[in-house]
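[audit] Reproducing an earlier prediction to check determinism. Same input, same settings, fresh worker. If the C-alpha coordinates differ from the archived copy the diff job will pick it up downstream; this log only records the rerun itself.
[audit] input (112 residues):
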Amino acid sequence: MKTNFFLLLIIALISVSCAATSSMSSGTSGSYSEIAADGRIYVIGSDKLMEKYSNIEAGHAPHLPYTQTYLGLGPNGETVIMEVGKKGTELKERLLATFCKKNGKMEGPCAM
Protein backbone atom coordinates (compact mmCIF):
# COMPACT_ATOMS: atom_id res chain seq x y z
CA MET A 1 0.00 0.00 0.00
CA LYS A 2 2.87 2.39 0.83
CA THR A 3 4.49 1.61 -2.52
CA ASN A 4 1.30 2.57 -4.37
CA PHE A 5 1.05 5.79 -2.37
CA PHE A 6 4.63 6.79 -3.21
CA LEU A 7 4.14 5.88 -6.87
CA LEU A 8 0.99 8.02 -7.01
CA LEU A 9 2.79 10.83 -5.21
CA ILE A 10 5.61 10.79 -7.75
CA ILE A 11 3.16 10.71 -10.67
CA ALA A 12 1.25 13.62 -9.14
CA LEU A 13 4.44 15.62 -8.71
CA ILE A 14 5.42 15.02 -12.31
CA SER A 15 1.93 15.96 -13.53
CA VAL A 16 1.75 19.15 -11.50
CA SER A 17 5.34 19.95 -12.24
CA CYS A 18 4.79 21.48 -15.65
CA ALA A 19 4.02 24.68 -13.78
CA ALA A 20 6.28 24.26 -10.79
CA THR A 21 8.91 21.80 -9.70
CA SER A 22 9.33 18.91 -12.02
CA SER A 23 8.71 18.63 -15.71
CA MET A 24 10.08 16.31 -18.30
CA SER A 25 10.23 16.27 -22.05
CA SER A 26 12.32 14.00 -24.17
CA GLY A 27 14.41 13.98 -27.29
CA THR A 28 18.12 14.23 -27.77
CA SER A 29 18.22 17.96 -28.38
CA GLY A 30 15.20 18.87 -26.29
CA SER A 31 15.35 16.87 -23.06
CA TYR A 32 14.43 18.92 -20.01
CA SER A 33 13.65 18.10 -16.39
CA GLU A 34 13.41 20.04 -13.15
CA ILE A 35 13.87 18.18 -9.85
CA ALA A 36 13.17 20.02 -6.59
CA ALA A 37 15.21 18.81 -3.61
CA ASP A 38 16.80 20.33 -0.52
CA GLY A 39 15.39 23.79 -1.30
CA ARG A 40 17.07 23.78 -4.70
CA ILE A 41 15.95 23.14 -8.26
CA TYR A 42 18.12 20.80 -10.33
CA VAL A 43 17.78 21.24 -14.11
CA ILE A 44 18.78 18.29 -16.29
CA GLY A 45 18.93 18.16 -20.07
CA SER A 46 21.07 15.23 -21.21
CA ASP A 47 19.35 11.97 -22.12
CA LYS A 48 21.83 9.99 -20.02
CA LEU A 49 21.02 11.85 -16.79
CA MET A 50 17.31 12.03 -17.63
CA GLU A 51 17.24 8.25 -17.79
CA LYS A 52 19.33 7.88 -14.65
CA TYR A 53 17.08 10.15 -12.57
CA SER A 54 13.69 9.44 -14.14
CA ASN A 55 12.62 7.43 -11.07
CA ILE A 56 14.30 9.50 -8.37
CA GLU A 57 12.32 9.69 -5.14
CA ALA A 58 10.74 13.05 -4.35
CA GLY A 59 13.05 15.27 -2.35
CA HIS A 60 16.25 13.42 -3.23
CA ALA A 61 18.91 15.51 -4.95
CA PRO A 62 20.56 14.13 -8.08
CA HIS A 63 24.31 14.18 -8.57
CA LEU A 64 25.21 16.18 -11.67
CA PRO A 65 28.84 15.93 -12.76
CA TYR A 66 29.13 19.37 -14.42
CA THR A 67 26.97 22.24 -13.17
CA GLN A 68 26.36 25.96 -13.13
CA THR A 69 24.77 27.36 -9.97
CA TYR A 70 22.36 30.32 -10.03
CA LEU A 71 21.60 31.73 -6.58
CA GLY A 72 18.00 32.92 -6.19
CA LEU A 73 16.95 32.22 -9.79
CA GLY A 74 14.10 29.85 -8.88
CA PRO A 75 10.48 31.04 -8.92
CA ASN A 76 10.50 31.37 -5.11
CA GLY A 77 14.14 32.44 -4.78
CA GLU A 78 15.53 28.90 -4.79
CA THR A 79 19.04 28.16 -5.93
CA VAL A 80 19.04 26.58 -9.38
CA ILE A 81 21.70 23.99 -10.17
CA MET A 82 21.86 23.44 -13.90
CA GLU A 83 23.58 20.67 -15.81
CA VAL A 84 26.17 21.95 -18.26
CA GLY A 85 28.01 20.08 -20.97
CA LYS A 86 31.59 18.95 -20.52
CA LYS A 87 32.48 20.81 -23.69
CA GLY A 88 30.74 23.81 -25.21
CA THR A 89 27.87 25.94 -23.95
CA GLU A 90 24.94 24.65 -26.03
CA LEU A 91 23.37 22.53 -23.27
CA LYS A 92 23.64 25.28 -20.66
CA GLU A 93 22.22 27.92 -22.99
CA ARG A 94 19.27 25.69 -23.99
CA LEU A 95 18.46 24.70 -20.41
CA LEU A 96 18.75 28.26 -19.13
CA ALA A 97 16.49 29.59 -21.90
CA THR A 98 13.92 26.84 -21.25
CA PHE A 99 14.01 27.38 -17.48
CA CYS A 100 13.61 31.15 -17.82
CA LYS A 101 10.69 30.80 -20.25
CA LYS A 102 8.87 28.17 -18.13
CA ASN A 103 9.27 30.22 -14.97
CA GLY A 104 8.61 33.66 -16.44
CA LYS A 105 12.03 34.98 -15.53
CA MET A 106 13.50 37.94 -17.41
CA GLU A 107 16.11 39.32 -15.03
CA GLY A 108 19.65 38.32 -14.16
CA PRO A 109 21.00 35.47 -16.29
CA CYS A 110 17.61 35.22 -18.03
CA ALA A 111 17.95 38.73 -19.50
CA MET A 112 19.40 37.68 -22.84
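[audit] rerun output stored. Observation attached for the diff report: The first strand starts at residue 24 and ends at 25.
[audit] end
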